[in-house]
TrEMBL record:
GO cellular component assignments: cytosol
Species: Kocuria soli
SUPFAM superfamilies, alphabetized: Ferritin-like
Record's protein name: 1,2-phenylacetyl-CoA epoxidase subunit A
InterPro entries according to UniProt: Aromatic_CoA_ox/epox (IPR052703), Ferritin-like (IPR012347), Ferritin-like_SF (IPR009078), PaaA (IPR011881), PaaA_PaaC (IPR007814)
UniProt-listed Pfam families: PaaA_PaaC
PANTHER family: 1,2-PHENYLACETYL-COA EPOXIDASE, SUBUNIT A (PTHR30458:SF2), PHENYLACETIC ACID DEGRADATION PROTEIN PAA (PTHR30458)
Single Gene Ontology MF annotation: phenylacetyl-CoA 1,2-epoxidase activity
Amino acid sequence: MTDQEATQQETTGQEYFDHLIEQDSRVEPRDWMPEAYRKTLTRQVSQHAHSEIIGMQPEANWITRAPSLKRKAILMAKVQDEAGHGLYLYSAAETLGTPRDVLNQQLLDGKAKYSSIFNYPARTWADIGAIGWLVDGAAICNQVPLCRASYGPYGRAMVRICKEESFHQRQGWEILYELSNGTPEQKQMAQDAVNRFYGPALQMFGPPDADSPHSQQSMDWKIKRFSNDDLRQRFVDMIVPQVEALGLTLPDPDLKWNEDRGHYDYGELDWEEFFAVIKGQGPCNRQRMQRRREAHREGAWVREAAAAYAEKTSQTAASALIGA
Ligand code: BYC
């Protein structure tokens, strides 16, 4: 292709891309797309996938300690769902051109981020409730608009993920509800868990809009539909009546209804802590990454066996063709 033809192709591609975005239509893997769009989506979708995989750890630690067989089965199903979410998301990310093992290596090398929330420990059984109610609740609030993301494979993956997240949130709510209506010690355990997870759950929405370098461009491209602060506000408005129904409180003395805005005002979050956590200095960053690297090493034989099987079946298929 001559330089002139390449420029022509790029101009037509850009026009078509702009048209798709303007029409609120979907960009598909084979469509031309600006390199920066491909890059930001690869970043966001792979970070999202890494979050699902790392996010299995705090809960998986509680599978053996769940208080009944039923709770154990439910928690196992939830953790398995999260592995599945990771897989759909890696598949969606791969359609943008970067192979999954490269994305995975970025995580193992500590170059790719995953959600700050998973660097906090799950200390008690009530924390499993708080993770379900607050963390999965925040995830739903953030991810429902992503079902309409302009990139087709990402939006479609999000539809199924959101359905499963709703079940996850319900199971968290139910754990907290039961504890809150149990003995005074159980109620206190539920309150402590909410106290510890409230701030970090609000930080899942990302830094304040003024410190969010990617938001505006991602909204212009209709990857993100709302800003970080808008979604955070929506989440606060949603959980205030829920916490009342639980008979618990949120640990924020500044939380109050603002008649003029039609929203709850809430106190400043600890952004210094947030930025330290995403730089690797949270309470569990080292432990999470160490466990992920171990799991990757322990899984080497599975990857090798799958690759050998794929090779063998493709050879058998090729010999059958030659024989035919
Ligand atoms: N933690 O310009 P910004 C789940 C980074 S899984 C860590 O606002 P953007 C679940 C951000 O990446 C939940 N890093 O970025 C799983 C960027 O850094 P880089 C995961 C964060 O992308 C298992 C920088 O800060 N959900 O629910 O426009 C069990 C500047 O930020 C965080 C998703 O991944 C954070 N909280 O907006 C239970 C949802 N926030 O890349 C539950 C999809 C920001 O420049 N992702 N950063 O180095 C998104 O919606 C967006 O990527 C974000 C950030 C709202 C998170």
